[in-house]
Every structure is written in structure tokens, then in C-alpha cells.
């Protein structure tokens, strides 16, 4: 293509380095710099009247949506049904007319997501799409399009489009919360500030290369890897495991940390590294005790935490990647960049075709 790698080894490396810029560009579209308030485009429906959201997407976009679900439910108190598009379109969930269909897609062309969009529209839903290609088929068939402004993404595995989707979804949650009266001015200011802090914090992650490479060396030798997280860090674990599978061909599975004891704990031994997402926050102690259980069974803990969580995690983790502190609302965005960086480092060690992994396509326009 006409877009070069600018001296990076792969498009993926280049696109990982674009995270701070892309997050900033996306937020600039949605936050008024003068009032520091989220500004959603004019909607042909009232967010305050929406009874429920049905979120659907495929691949990484679906995990972005799952993180968005925690925000929409937590801040806007909006119930969110979330399912992958290939299931949703045949599940035929009962829909209340006037509900909101929330579609997320980098390309705007994914066949399953497009089919789900059409069936949700037939079910009387308003259609809001979060898209990176504004002239795509899904854009034409949506009532509202929120643009992710990530620029062209060449690497098959999504990186910068993912954090741009998260930036948009965070703003939608804040906008919806204001419309529904579930957010104080002080809380809105706090969340907007947390978002505006993101590009700077994201740029700091590139200083974590050595720590991430140490984890990558352990992961690259494994046949199976378990990713764990709680709350909005659970979908980050799903995204981390997906990225690892896609570009390094190592089997990885993600579990809600609290659910580990109901099955995957049986797998844990020295040969199955555990990648834990455990920044400080509301669920920190709960996560820590789940990780302690893994550790007690001989599991090798690779812990992604933050400055405030580092001392606690140092007692159980074999290796740590310590991210800068962030607001709990935006921490999942930083941690998703970190797990994408890990997958990239593992792929380098494995020598795979990072930008064009076998059997995968950038945009899947068949069912
Ligand atoms: C493909 C890609 C994934 C992507 C998914 C959804 O499977 O390999 O990286 O997440 O499609 O694509 P979309 O364009 O709808 O975001």
C-alpha cells in the first residue's frame, strides 16, 4: 500500500506507537475543549428514553464493546445486552422497540456485524455504530455514526482502532449518563479529566519495553497461557488472549479471575503462565486473592498492575509490568495497550508473520 512503516519493523509496531495520537484525535472530536464536556452528535432519538442497549460486534471490536458495557451500565445505569454478532443474529433476542443497537467495527464491512445491524433495525432499534471507515456499508445503514479517527489500520490484528473504539465508548457512556441524570457535574469533570490524561499516560507505556520483554520470554516458551482479570479488566484479558492467539499462535484463554476456581485452576502448573490484569481499584483485593490461589498451585504469575498496586503484587508475582496510575474508569484502555505490546513481543520471539497472520483476514465479508 501507499502507507509506509516509517522505520518500524512491522505495521503493528507502528500502529501500537500511534495509540497516544489516535486516542487524542478521537477524544478531540467528542470533548469540547472550552467547556470540557462530552458532546455527542445530534441524535434522532432521546438517550434518556432508551430502555436498553444491544451491543454487538466481532473479534477485538466485541471486546471493546464489552468494556463499554461496564461503562454504560456503571455510569449511565443503562442495561446492556452483549453478544458476538454471529450469535446475536440467529438468537433472535426479544427487543423492546426504541432500544439502542450499538455496533462496533473497524472496517464497517464485517458480514456478521452488518447482518446483526439489519436484524436489530428490523426489530425497531435505533442504530448507533462506532466505525473507523466513515464511508462503509454499516455507516450508510446507521442512524448515527461515531467516528474512531484511528486512520487506516494495516496490521490484520487490531490495535489503535481498538483504543479509539474505547475512547468513543467512554464518551458515549458519559454523554448517556448526563442525558439520563445519573452523573454529577463533579463526576463528569473527573471522568473527562481521566480521558484527557490518557494520551500522556499511553505514551509512558513505551518505556515499559524491558519489563514486557521479560514477560514475553516466559510466554513465548509456553504452549498454553491463561489471562485473568475482573470487572472491566476481564474483557482486557479476553483481548490480550485473542491478540496472543492471532499473532503468536500460542493457545491462550481468558477467564474472569473470580471464575478461575470453577475450572481453569485445574490446568495451573509451572507450564501454564498466568497473565494477570490487576491495577489498583475496587476489585484489587479480590483479584489479588484469586491470583494468590493460582500462585499457591505453582502458577507463574505475570502481573500487569500500576504504581499503587505494585507493592501488593510484588509479594506474589514472578514478573511485573508496572503501568502508570490511572483513574479506574480509563485503566482498561492503558492495560489493553500493554497486553497488545506483550503479544507483539511474543510474536517477535516466535518469528511469525506479525502483520499477516495465517488464516486471518483484516475484514471478513463472508459469514
Ligand atoms: C477480523 C480481524 C479482527 C477484527 C474482526 C472484526 O476477524 O482479524 O482483528 O477484530 O475482524 O473486524 P471489524 O472490521 O468489524 O472491526
Walkthrough of the structure:
The protein is of the alpha/beta class and 367 residues long. Helices cover 45% and strands 16% of the residues. The protein contains 14 helices and twelve strands. Strands 4-3-5-6-7 form a five-stranded parallel sheet, with helices on both faces. A five-stranded parallel sheet has the order 9-8-10-11-12, with helices on both faces. A two-stranded antiparallel ribbon has the order 1-2. Helix 11 (233-248) links the parallel strand 8 (224-229) and strand 9 (251-256). Helix 3 packs parallel to helix 7. It starts with 10 loop residues before the first helix and ends in a 17-residue tail after the last helix. The relative contact order is 0.14. The model has no long low-confidence stretch (mean pLDDT 96). Bound molecules: 6-O-phosphono-alpha-D-glucopyranose. 6-O-phosphono-alpha-D-glucopyranose binds next to helix 3.
